[in-house]
Amino acid sequence: MKVFDLQCSQGHCFEGWFGSEADFADQQARALVDCPLCGDGHVQKMLSAPRLNLGRAKPQETQETHGDDSPARGTASTNEVALASPQTEATQALLHLARELLARTQDVGNRFAEEARKIHYGEAQARPIRGQATPQQTRDLLEEGVQVMPFVLPESLKGPLQ
Ligand SMILES: [Zn+2]
Questions:
Q1: For residue 116, how many other CB atoms are within 10 A of its CB?
Q2: Which of 117, 148, 121 is nearest to 135 (CA)?
Q3: Which terminus of the chain has a lower count of CB atoms within 10 Å, N or C?
Q4: How far, in Å, is the centroid of ligand 1 from the Cα of 51?
């Protein structure tokens, strides 16, 4: 049994009980469904009822189609994004290099520019060193031909290893 909200051409609303939707369609086609208030045989399912867009509500159908398009357009305008894991291979490789650097260099701290110059000019034993230098000190060293390499230490390696 199916219950449909029906409306006649005069705008009267009423319920109709049918065995099935096909049963309703058949009775409607043969004008066997009429309005209990005015006897009008031109009965349609109400606009608010689902599936009514099969018939006369062409303009509304078009609007509904546009409405359905909107989410699709929104989807098309978005991009695939991925949140990078902090433990990617690249990060692991960088950490490995940083550990190697730390293991193979002597930390001279903020005396780096001074020590680098001494080594460069043969005033101190040649050895790999690391330390802190200001951008200006780094530029000066490079202009003097001292091969220094600025690098950023990963946060996780700062502290205990230094
Ligand atoms: Zn009626």
A1: 23
A2: 148
A3: N
A4: 21
What's the number of domains the chain is made of? Answer: 2
Query: What token pair was written down for 151?
Result: 């690098």
Residues 99 and 43 in one domain: no
Calpha distance 6→14 (Å, rounded) = 5
Q: How many A from CA of 31 to the centre of ligand 1? A: 13
- Report the separation in Å between the CA atom of 20 and the middle of ligand 1, taken as the mean of its atom positions: 22
User: What pTM does this model have?
Assistant: 0.41
How far away, in angstroms, is 59 Cα from ligand 1 center? 24
Tell me, yes or no, whether 38 lies in a domain: yes
The model's pLDDT over 2-59, given as tens digits with 9 standing for 90+, comes to: 888 899 999 898 888 888 889 998 998 888 898 888 988 899 988 654 444 445 544 5
Residues in the chain: 162
